[in-house]
Amino acid sequence: MTNTIVVVGGGVSGLTSAYLLSKSKGNTVTVVAKHMPGDYDIEYASPFAGANVLPMNPDADSRWERRTWPELEWLCRNVPEAGLHFKNVRVFRKHKDLDPDTASMPMDPLFDPNPWYRHMMPDYRELESSELPPGQDSGCSFTSVCLNTPMYLSWLVGQCLRNGVVFRRGVLSDLADARRLSHAGRPADIVVNATGLGSLRLGGVRDTAMAPARGQLVLVRNDRPSMLVTSSTDDDSGEVLYVMHRAAGGGTIIGGTYDIGNWESQPCPNIAARIMARAVRLDPELAGGKGVTGLDVVRHAVGLRPYRKGGVRIERETLRDEAEDGGSSVEVVHNYGHAGWGYQGSFGCAERVVELVNEIRAAKGEDLSKEPKLFNYDAAATPKL
């Protein structure tokens, strides 16, 4: 008998988990989600992401990004229909942001002067002083990828469908209810919780460490050959500056904000004006040297990143299912709380989901000696951390 799994959540974390789990012939996988690729809703973060690879975790927690980068690089080289392309990225630092005594907020390891990822990202180098725009003290550049997120999410759905995954729309009040939504005709053996910010209020989870990290952005038609990000802005501490050119005609994302605890779904015109002004001031050629009026705006948007105090949660739990006679239990694997790095950690996190699922399968006596490889690249050559 196959192992039945219900993955709850249709964002990049849920879809990547379902995709890797579906590679095993021993798994029957159903994805249940309120929102699916193609939807745009404030509750559904994945379509609003840039998205690219800008390593954000400290070295000690870098497994997720170290394991994901080679797969995204492989997809970029070999699967153009997935919607990725290579881009040079410039990371600018202000020295005051690196000093805890003068920084307005804790800095991501992305801005470390000697970052762990310098050995992972291709073409990494420190920028010369002549390459720095006014107001920036140092920086680095390297080759990264940028994703056309609607295109990539649809590609993930296609890969899942090829492997027999069934998709069902549904709204759950309790995580345990998911086990009865398997298409296999019997309750699921395992539920994977990839509900992101929904884990704050979902019964059976109710993780109070979760909070929205509001991201307001502007999508423009203007194309630039490189991407950029700065360690801070001269405006509010909850405002940030980044520019990402999506693949396959997906436009250029200009951001933005990182406002923890803010649930506001509507774009603020004043913030939008600051976002665009910051971008063209740092990179005038983005608008052809015409200032903000040279930006060809597609839309203004807001997404809520699934921020979790204490970091991502990827672990097993046995959850009691009170709706079953006798109050039976269901095995749960959690994968949520990725904040702003869901795409660039997606394969590494989903790999850990598979490992935890396989622990459950092995405990039931399943033979896992002939499981297929999860990645297209040579995963054995990349150390697990």
From TrEMBL:
D-dopa binds at residues 242, 305, 340. The keyword Signal does not apply. InterPro entries: D-amino_acid_oxidase_CS (IPR006181), DAO (IPR023209), FAD-dep_OxRdtase (IPR006076). GO terms for cellular component: cytoplasm. Pfam families: DAO (PF01266). Residues 5-356 form the FAD dependent oxidoreductase domain. Keywords: FAD, Flavoprotein, Oxidoreductase. One of its GO terms (biological process) is D-amino acid catabolic process. It comes from the Eukaryota. FAD binds at residue 195. Its cofactor is FAD. One of its GO terms (molecular function) is D-amino-acid oxidase activity. Belongs to the DAMOX/DASOX family. This is FAD dependent oxidoreductase domain-containing protein. It comes from Akanthomyces muscarius.
